[in-house]
Amino acid sequence: MTNSTQDSQGTAQPMRLQRYLARAGVASRRASDEMVATGRVSVNGEVALVGQKVVPGIDVVRVDGKRIDLLDVSVTLMLNKPAGVVTSMKRQGHERIVADLLPLERYPGLYPLGRLDCDATGLLLFSTDGSLGHALLHPSHHVPKTYEVTLNGTLLPEEAEQLRQGVKVEGFAAQPAEVRVFGKRGNRAEITVHEGQYHQVKRMFEAVGHKVVQLRRTKLGPLELGDLGLGAWRQLTDAECASLHALLQDAQGDSGNLR
Q: Which candidate, 20, 16, 18, 38, places its Cα nearest to that of 30?
């Protein structure tokens, strides 16, 4: 997916510094603003200002002294996250982190588009286009996410129906979910939710009396994990990127905001 910071003649156009840093995969736009405000960012050797504009390929942008360049082509990867791995690009202690599993030497600007709990597995996206993450994670877009869960007991038909109708959990009312029960004991289920609240799936099952023992994300919007091996990654195809952007553009009603 090509960079969209050029006009029809291929001339680089000015863009806000926070957007530049987000597109480079440094951080979200909000976090980028905080970096600028605390003096961590420079442009052409001068301390940057919040709201400042830069011209990609001409102005030299640095964060903590490290030069930050935009790739000519943005890259988005899918990872099948194993359990016991923290969704973080920076190590805080001795824990395993997702950065250990990614080709950061090839794509240094990769940034996680969302997160999974340490004990959860499955589909997790990373991109060098931070603005894609901003759009994907915006609460108004309601991107569907599908999970396979293993519970500590049988999910009764009436309990599954409660989830389909929407349940109240502490702090918010979960929207109606799509639920399919399977397994010999009826203790496994597939659930599709449209919000992105903290520990949402676990809290929804707790609301109907069950603890989630295992959780695996299998789909995110139009993307499917498929047979991607545990701990493995792959680059999204052009068709997958297009379908993801189309979903987000439909959700926000303005394709220009994605760029």
A: 18
pLDDT tens-digit profile of 88-125?
988 888 899 999 999 987 787 788 998 999 999 999 99
Instruction: Decide if 117 is catalytic.
Output: yes
Q: Which of 59, 100, 117, 227 is catalytic?
A: 117
Q: What tokens appear for 131 in the block?
A: 């603005």
pLDDT digits (tens, 9 = 90+) for 8-20: 344 567 889 988 8
Distances 164 to 69, 87, 139, 182, 223 between C-alpha atoms, Å? 46, 29, 20, 16, 23
- How far, in Å, are 55, 75, 99, 242, 246 from residue 107 at the CA level? 21, 8, 11, 20, 24
* C-alpha of 13 from chain center: 27
pLDDT single digits (tens) 130-168: 677 777 877 677 899 999 999 999 999 999 999 999 999
Query: What is the C-alpha separation between 167 and 185, in angstroms, rounded?
Result: 23
